[in-house]
Design goal:
This protein is an alpha+beta fold. About 30% of the residues lie in helices and about 30% in strands. The structure holds coenzyme A.
């Protein structure tokens, strides 16, 4: 178990993202499997300095809600010790990006990313529910490659429903790293 109340079990919690989390996010978000799941990343995504500079701007922007997903022991949570940063979850207003054209929703989106070794353990399901208890604005939107069944399942379990599908250019897919058009599922939580 990675969450629960029993002594010795690790519990999923969220806290404000801190600058020292960002190098860990870089590790999480440059894993080839994760980039394949997401489908599309920024052209300079693998540039560590650019990644950290982008996060500097995110952390300085008070209109964005950004949380680190951590594992901690319940008995040490109050002291804020012995935590493991396992991922990131955020709420943001998407701005049109010619490099990644897509539907711009009439409200904020959520997005999340776990380190590879932390996937498949139920962590995202817990993290999204904790985040939605804290971020009460509705409707909230989300999108995922239609073959990212884990992400779509996480959203469905949290109450999101499908509102449409569209194609997008996934630069992390296709043969020879050339990218390809793939389908994305758009979802809303009313
Ligand atoms: C998508 C992601 C967040 C899922 O996190 P996770 O902690 O592994 O998800 P959970 O363990 O909570 O699983 C949720 C459900 O999806 C299913 N699932 C998870 N990964 C799956 C996979 N690769 N294939 C099929 N089902 C999967 C689980 O079985 C579970 O279903 P259930 O509750 O009905 O049994 C994680 O894989 C990740 O960070 N991927 C890289 C980044 C990414 O894709 N972010 C989302 C972009 S839209």
């Amino acid at each position: 178990m990675v969450h629960g109340a029993g002594t010795g079990e690790m519990r999923v919690m969220l806290r404000e993202t801190r600058p020292e989390d960002v190098p860990r996010f870089f590790e999480h978000q440059t894993d080839p499997e994760g980039m394949w799941m997401v489908g599309s990343v920024r052209p300079n995504h693998l540039d560590r300095d650019a990644f950290i500079a982008r996060w500097d701007a995110i952390l300085a922007n008070d209109t964005l809600i950004k949380r680190a997903i951590i594992l901690t022991h319940p008995e040490s949570a109050a002291a804020n010790t012995a935590e493991i940063v396992v991922g990131s979850i955020n709420c943001f207003e998407r701005v049109p990006d010619p490099a990644r054209p897509c539907t711009i929703f009439p409200g904020p989106e959520i997005g999340y990313w776990l380190g590879r070794e932390h996937r498949g353990k139920g962590i995202a399901s817990v993290a999204v529910k904790l985040f939605l208890a804290e971020v009460t604005r509705r409707p909230l939107y989300a999108r995922a490659a239609s073959d990212n069944v884990g992400s779509i399942r996480v959203l469905q379990k949290a109450g999101f429903t499908e509102i449409g599908r569209e194609m997008f250019f996934a630069n992390m897919r296709g043969a020879d790293g050339k990218g390809e058009e793939i389908e994305e599922t758009m979802m809303v939580l009313e």
